[in-house]
């Protein structure tokens, strides 16, 4: 489990940077805490990943928190916007997250070996996420997408056979794709 000091320090850094750079809509410690809980909830039901790629990490949700939850798992935070990528690099350094790499580029421009888990929150629809990351996955890759109420209509548009679960909590739908068939 993540040490509470790290979560506290992350919250302080995010709120401090957010005043100047507007990284997230979360403006209070309580709002940041809710985003942290949302980011970490899937660790209660997903398999421990071999590596993580988070697409469009923004202010750190969920990728930076997943990196904290899995400190021995290589985690790449793919964030094309300079301010957000700088923030992520700074926080990874301050929190001594040696498993984190920040890639300041769009995911379709990022090149790597396939990942064990590809995650994303509030980036684009499911079909597009699968298409944009297909060069970074293999038959073992799992996906974790943090979705809202449009998830069900998005799944109708996906023209691939998927083995997946949808876990609902509050107004969030966590799409956990165990395998693209």
List the helices and strands and how they pair.
Blueprint: H1 4-21, H2 29-40, E1 51-55, H3 63-69, E2 74-78, H4 82-94, E3 100-103, E4 117-121, H5 126-132, E5 142-147, H6 151-157, E6 162-169, E7 172-180
Parallel strand pairs: 1-2, 1-4, 2-3, 4-5
Antiparallel strand pairs: 5-7, 6-7
Helix pairs in contact: 1-2, 1-4
What this model shows, in words?
This protein has one domain: Vaccinia Virus protein VP39 (Rossmann fold, 3-Layer(aba) Sandwich). Helix content is 35%, strand content 23%. The protein has helices at 4-21, 29-40, 63-69, 82-94, 126-132, 151-157, and strands at residues 51-55, 74-78, 100-103, 117-121, 142-147, 162-169, 172-180. Strand 4, helix 5 (126-132) and strand 5 form a beta-alpha-beta unit. The longest helix has 18 residues, at 4-21. The protein is globular, with a radius of gyration of 15 Å.
């Amino acid at each position: 489990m993540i040490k509470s000091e790290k979560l506290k320090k992350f919250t302080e850094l995010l709120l401090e940077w957010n005043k100047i750079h507007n990284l997230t809509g979360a403006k209070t410690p309580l709002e940041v805490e809710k985003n942290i809980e949302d980011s970490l909830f899937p660790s209660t039901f997903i398999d421990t990943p071999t590596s993580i790629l988070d697409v469009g990490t923004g202010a750190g949700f969920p990728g930076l928190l997943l990196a904290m939850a899995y400190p021995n798992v290589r985690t790449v935070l793919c964030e094309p916007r300079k301010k957000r990528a700088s923030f992520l690099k700074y926080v990874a350094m301050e929190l001594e997250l040696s498993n984190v790499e920040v890639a300041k580029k769009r995911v379709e421009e990022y090149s790597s070996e396939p990942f064990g888990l590809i995650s994303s929150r509030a980036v684009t629809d499911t079909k597009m996420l699968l298409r944009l990351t297909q060069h970074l996955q293999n038959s073992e890759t799992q996906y974790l997408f943090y979705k809202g109420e449009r998830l069900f209509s998005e799944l109708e548009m996906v023209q691939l056979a998927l083995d997946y679960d949808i876990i609902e909590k509050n107004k969030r739908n966590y799409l956990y794709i165990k395998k693209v068939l």
